[in-house]
Specification:
Strand content: over 45%
Order of helices and strands: HHEEHEEEE
Shape: globular
């Protein structure tokens, strides 16, 4: 398993457990993260903490990486199975999407989403 795959698995496992500190330990301090639920991006650990904390008061997402690919431009593509439920347990989304990452200093620097 590559460093990237280990980093991703650690990040997603922590996210699914709502362990923000462990997830953030895989992120570059100036990470750019998409606000998939709201649109736009947040930058930095504090902004991501706030976004996730707010997000989890409205929806219950879980994300499992199921495929890895390095693109010719050096970016890393992760195919994920994403399940999003409302707080009553009703399904909002259940499907696969691609998360595209760039790394800096062996940490996740930016994530983009491709549907």
């Amino acid at each position: 398993m590559t460093h990237f795959e280990n980093l991703i698995k650690k990040a997603y496992a922590a996210f699914n457990l709502r362990d923000i500190d462990t997830a953030l330990s895989t992120f570059h301090p100036e990470v750019q993260w998409p606000k998939a639920f709201e649109g736009g991006y947040v930058s930095g650990h504090d902004a991501i903490r706030g976004y996730w904390t707010r997000q989890w008061t409205e929806i219950n997402p879980t994300v499992e990486p199921i495929g890895f690919n390095q693109r010719s431009n050096g970016a890393f593509e992760v195919t994920v199975h994403q399940i999003v439920r409302d707080l009553q347990g009703n399904s909002i989304f259940d499907g696969q999407v691609k998360h595209i990452y760039t790394l800096e200093a062996d940490l996740l620097r930016r994530m983009d989403i491709e549907i």
